[in-house]
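Case study B.
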Amino acid sequence: MSTSTQTASATSQAKGAPLLEARGVVMRFGGLTAVDHVDLTVHEGEIVGLIGPNGAGKTTFFNCLTGMYKPTEGEVRLAGQVLPPVPRKVVVAGMSRTFQNIRLFANMTALENVMVGRYCRTTSKALTSILRGPKYRREEAETRARAQELLEYVGLGHTTEQLARNLPYGDQRRLEIARALATDPKVVLLDEPTAGMNPQETREAEQLIFKIRDSGLAVVVIEHDMRFIFNLCDRVLCLVRGAALIEGTPKEVQSDPRVIEAYIGTGDTEESEALEEALHEHDEIVEHLDDRPKEA
Ligand SMILES: Nc1ncnc2c1ncn2[C@@H]1O[C@H](COP(=O)(O)OP(=O)(O)OP(=O)(O)O)[C@@H](O)[C@H]1O
Ligand SMILES: [Mg+2]
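Model:
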């Protein structure tokens, strides 16, 4: 199958063991319940979409998964181990992320930004680093080489020495993905990876995420672009006012009238119109896939 026609449905049979398991996650801010008893299981080799109207609690849920917030209730496990709500420990355990509001080191180069992600896997202690002994120099060279490799992997091989703040917006988003990959994650969480991208960049981002999945990682992705989500994901979870409205295959989610209602209910007509259009288009994708000859 050519990559340009690749869809998640074609590979959804290949999913592996449960990797990320969130159970009964609740996040309250005073009287507001931003995340309301949400469960999510992500298997090895799976791409899972997280959708929902503005303010539904998607980013807050990511913050609970990655230790940025300590959930009011609930538990998050990675490969069977309970994750402590401490960002650095979560990264070391094997889960990394990108941010809705890009968080790069603006005055560092693209390469240095990726190297920062790598430092959670290096072992040089402070004294070795200060003295710049042979072990430090070897690790630093390895870190640099791996960072350059990752820049090339995300299509930014030409940006090595450019300051992050001078990169176009779409490239900054890809640089964040490279930094997340530098931590050697088992699962990577992407918060609106195509926000602000043009259609061509969005297609490239889609191919990059398939490539990441094909390299053996699990991916959870938040997006408002429904075409992107339905084409990319094996499963989709829709949150509304903090709670899970529906979880299922793209086909199941796109045919559930409550999903459109949830978007219309926000008064965001532009988004709900785009959603309806995408749902219709996805119908055609699914039908086309169903026409493929069945394997014995
Ligand atoms: N630190 C915080 N303190 C208080 N309220 C918060 C905090 N973080 C998020 N919220 C609230 O929680 C709710 C969910 O916000 P969140 O950012 O998770 O939504 P979202 O689904 O990511 O929305 P969007 O699609 O606009 O990014 C909102 O009402 C928001 O105002
Ligand atoms: Mg958000």
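The longest strand covers residues 18-29. The remaining cases will be described in the next quarterly update.
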